[in-house]
Amino acid sequence: MLLPKGAWVVVADGEKALVLENTGAPGAPKLAMIARDEADPVIIASDRPGRMPDEGAGQRSALEQPDYARLNAERFAGDLVDMLRDRLRRGKFDKVVLVAPPQVLGALRDEMDEGLARHVLAEIHKTLTNHPVPKIAEIVAAELDGM
């Protein structure tokens, strides 16, 4: 499979996303940065888990501490999908390749409606947010070539 010219590549993890566009040929992709976004951690852990009353006089049980990192990542995935949906509606792209760790891809999939999902060309299960853009292009091309 080749990456069409004009297709977007969204490289994300739970905290950062790079939105790239293929400005090169399908067989030799060249990715240009369109946007870079970082999550604002809005859910912050308290110092201790809450407690709730139990049956019996003076007995209390501790509540399980929420997974704040996962909750932040899911919120970030929702914001990213909202941005993609808006850009798709405005005709900024036609095809998109999603590159993210499996848990983030799952969160993105959960947030996507059928209209956006039809434009997903491929999903690549990798964490590439800290790679330079030329290296991302090389890895994405190799992964797509293997599909």
How is the CATH topology named?
Nucleotidyltransferase, domain 5
Shape: elongated
Biggest sheet strand order reads: 3-2-1-6-7
Radius of gyration: 19 Å
CATH superfamily: eRF1 domain 2
Helix content: 25-40%
Task: Tell me what the structure shows.
With 147 residues, this protein is an alpha/beta fold. The protein has a single domain, classed as eRF1 domain 2 (Nucleotidyltransferase, domain 5), CATH 3.30.420.60. The protein is 33% helix and 25% strand. It is built from four helices and seven strands. The strands form two sheets. A five-stranded mixed β-sheet has the order 3-2-1-6-7. Strands 4-5 form a two-stranded antiparallel ribbon.
How is the secondary structure organized here?
Layout: E1 8-12, E2 16-22, E3 31-38, E4 51-53, E5 60-62, H1 68-89, E6 96-100, H2 102-111, H3 114-117, E7 120-125, H4 133-145
Parallel strand pairs: 1-6, 6-7
Antiparallel strand pairs: 1-2, 2-3, 4-5
Helix pairs in contact: 1-2
Please provide a brief summary of the model.
By secondary structure, this protein is of the alpha/beta class. The protein has four helices and seven strands.
Give the tags:
elongated, alpha/beta, Nucleotidyltransferase, domain 5, 4 helices, 147 residues
